[in-house]
């Protein structure tokens, strides 16, 4: 079986072009993640893409000296396969769970795709790498906005309130939420053991499952809830999709006295 020596050789110029292209393509995707303040951003995506391209180049061209040995069989895809499976530890580190909300899945997927782009560039599969990069950017920028616009009416958000058990307290909360086009889908109430607001007023903990049209409407509603006299504390966990700076998580407790019973 004849061996083509040029197949296993690459010039320094071509190698440099591939590494720089991997840097640019990975950086474009990382820039979108950085812009939206995600855990894995600009530098992380560059490192993943450049590293993947380097490993692909090593897998194809790094062992060219052994190609002509009689008992050696080369497999250019072997190291690439390890990159695809091994990159998972970075993706797992980007996924966070806060109560019922899971975040970071898109960032984890973008890291995995960037690794594939780096492998494609390293193998000289330029058209596929550039095409995938363009599609990923369209998905992250345009489809993200479309998803938020189209799917918010199907999403729910859970919030926890601590309120003074007075007549009309829950009705005032429901009215306020309704004014912001927020619908209560489920409600769970329990008394706070050992805590009282006064001698004849108990404190109750309420968990509300809400259906809403906009994260910003929920943030505004929570701001108004904290100003109600009977609301002592509000905790919304993580509000995904909120465009208001610093209000992705709403947690507030008033400075009113809480008495321990007994």
TrEMBL record:
Membrane topology label: Multi-pass membrane protein
Residue spans crossing the bilayer: 15-32, 44-67, 79-96, 125-144
Region (Disordered): 238-262
Superkingdom of origin organism: Bacteria
Subcellular location(s) per record: Cell membrane
Domain ACT intervals: 158-242
InterPro entries: ACT-like_dom_sf (IPR045865), ACT_dom (IPR002912), MgtC/SapB/SrpB/YhiD_fam (IPR003416), MgtC_SapB_SrpB_YhiD_N (IPR049177)
Annotated Gene3D superfamilies: 3.30.70.260
Keyword Lyase: no
Keywords: Cell membrane, Membrane, Transmembrane, Transmembrane helix
SUPFAM superfamilies: ACT-like
Transmembrane keyword on record: yes
Chief localisation class: membrane
UniProt family annotation: Belongs to the MgtC/SapB family.
Protein name per UniProt: MgtC/SapB family protein
Organism encoding this protein: Paenibacillus residui
